[in-house]
Amino acid sequence: MAVVTMPQLGESITEGTIARWLKKVGDPVKKYESLVEVITDKVNAEVPAPVAGVLKEIRVQEGATVTVGTEICVIEESQLSPPSREPSISSPPSREGQGRVPPPTRNVGEEAHGRLSPAVRTLADEQGIGDEELARIQGTGVGGRISKRDLQDYIERRGTAPAQSPPSREGQGRVPAMESPPSGEGQGRVPAMESPPSREGQGRVLPQDEAVPLSAIRRSIATHMVKSKQTTPHAWTVAEVDMTNVVRFRRSVKESFKQREGVDLTYLPIVIKGVVEQLKENPRLNASWGEDKIVVHHDFNIGIAVSIDDGLVVPVIHQADKLSIAALAKATDDLARRARAQKLTLPDVQGGTFTVNNPGTFGNILSYAIINSPEAAILSMEAIVKRPVVLDGDAIAVRSMMNLCLSFDHRVMDGANAARFLQGLRRWLEGVSDQLPLY
To answer: How far apart are CA 291 and CA 299, in angstroms?
Structure first.
């Protein structure tokens, strides 16, 4: 017998949630064939079978969150080919029966739109939407995949609500029947009107309120963020940057770059290039806390925050110092597309040493980001805004200005380290000219 345990899906990950079993008890499995889909705050991953045989026992059910190393299933090893569903040692292997046979009720929707994300599948199940109905929904995701927003829009148009949903002015107040308490304090339970506010100050749930159950990825993100804030002494500083030269440079090359490379040249790869150059000059920011030591990393692996349905993932550009701006543009585009299509692999989310976030795409001008532990810092690029600026000689001109916001681990560095990094990055960006090499 081979016992399969919850794997470590990233350096800072201590637990994972069973999203969906891809095999049932009694199913034959091949070595390295996917057994189960696991969700963390960084990635959705399929855990492979370590040996060939038959799945004999499932010890952790779908929806449960367990720590790394927990036994999740047992495989009875086979020295020969995996047996069929009713095995005998001498039974010849079936060429077509060794893969997963999906439940019939899920075939239509998943064939029409590709594998549904756990968030979409959960919402569909709560609303009683079967796969034949899912097949009629026009997906807007990659390859026509149904996103959570697509399904929510469909539900609103259809006017569907759970049977136990109380009436409200705007059709809200929905409380899913399958909701389970997220903690031992019973916070998932909807209290009666006369119940006192919870100990965490969340107050009463009124009839017109909506209690939204935590998705697995939302719960994982919450756990990781709380841990980062509780264990890492955050400090924060901001630098204002004149991005006029960068804006002018990008405008002059973006059309030819798109035609040549097939991807957009955004501001993100240009900033990442400057970040890497300054990390070389200020290595304490490319480090992590090691309890009795500070670990300074010599690889420059830059994480980029990507917004997805009901969450955020941070895929990593490995050895970013060896990439040109053009290569960084391709890497950021590729990682963002695969993150939103849930096609990231484990190496894509491992090994990050510094993270760059870009809330400026939403128009933000100041952000206090939580550090992606165990990294020592995270940089937020804010919106580029045109405004009058006083130049040398007291002249006033309209310039394209941006704030760079840096959150850092005060155990690893002091404010002077953070300030030197930001001022160096400011000078690098303001010094961009038409001669900046793309390749």
So the answer is: 21
In eight-state DSSP terms, residue 213 is: P
> What single-letter amino acid sits at 138?
Q
**pLDDT tens figures, 74-99:** 999 976 544 444 444 333 444 343 43
CA dihedral (175, 178, 181, 182) positive or negative: negative
DSSP 424: H
Annotated domain spans of the chain: 233-430
Q: What is the pLDDT of residues 164-218, one digit of tens each?
A: 444 444 444 343 444 444 444 444 444 444 444 444 445 577 888 888 887 767 7
Alpha-carbon distance of 41 to 60, in angstroms, equals: 19
Question: What pLDDT is attached to residue 167?
Answer: 41
The answer to whether 406 touches 237, Cβ cutoff 8 Å, is yes
- As a whole number of angstroms, the distance between CA 147 and CA 300 comes to 33
User: Structure pTM?
Assistant: 0.62
Instruction: Return the active site residues.
Output: 410, 414
What tokens does 35 get? 């057994």
Q: Is 233-430 in CATH node 3.30.559.10?
A: yes
Dist CA 149 CA 154 (whole Å)? 8
Per residue in 37-87, pLDDT tens?
A: 888 766 778 888 999 999 999 999 998 888 888 999 999 997 654 444 444
Q: What is the DSSP string of 171-203?
A: S-----TT---SSTT-TTS---TTPPPPTTS--
What is the DSSP-derived secondary structure letter of residue 80? Answer: S
CA–CA distance, 120 with 17 (Å, rounded to integer): 16
Q: Check whether 15 has a pLDDT greater than 90.
A: no
Decide the pairing of beta strands 44-48 and 377-381: unpaired
* 183, burial (CB in 10 Å: exposed 0-12, middle 13-18, buried 19+): exposed
Identify whether the C-beta of residue 40 lies closer than 8 Å to the C-beta of residue 66. no
Buried b vs exposed e over 84-107: b needs ≥16 C-beta within 10 Å?
Answer: beeeeeeeeeeeeebbeeeeeebe
